[in-house]
Amino acid sequence: MQLILVRHPQPLIAPGVCYGRSDLAVAPEQLAQTLVALTATLPRGLPLYSSPLQRCATLATQLAAPLQSPAPLLDARIAEIDFGDWELRPWDDIPRADIDAWAADLVHYRPGGGESVLQMAGRIAAFHADLQRQQRDAIVICHAGAMRLLLACHAGLAPADMAMQAAQNPHQIAYGATLTLQS
Fold it and tell me: In order of start, what are the domains of the chain with their CATH numbers?
């Protein structure tokens, strides 16, 4: 089974602002560039799974026809982490003590009262298990956090270990980038 993970295009948000579950649009020119690049490289006819957040869902919907794929299946389990009341706040405005508390417990702490990395890892593991049962290749349009957790899950890690690995390793996944997982 081959899973091709795709990160969404860059969303319309100022640098230095915390966002995860917030539903942000993408600049039309960014979307167009990403569509051209992905249409040229992704395989045809595979099912598309997408986070329901518009920065992913819009890309998935517009990829379906050129990739000769069925309409994308939107799955909330692959949405980005929920930062609670940190969402859409400048990182510099979040109290240092709160950020330090998160740094002290990257796996279990719920930033802004939202979702812990462990909670996110649980839903990502459930999504991955469903894909494994289907035993078919697929394209998954999602977020850097989801991609890092899917990579850890695909390596056979349990949710707590997935969360620890993802939380301890900063991502280097560019907007519109792909990552292929083989099993």
Answer: 2-182 (3.40.50.1240)
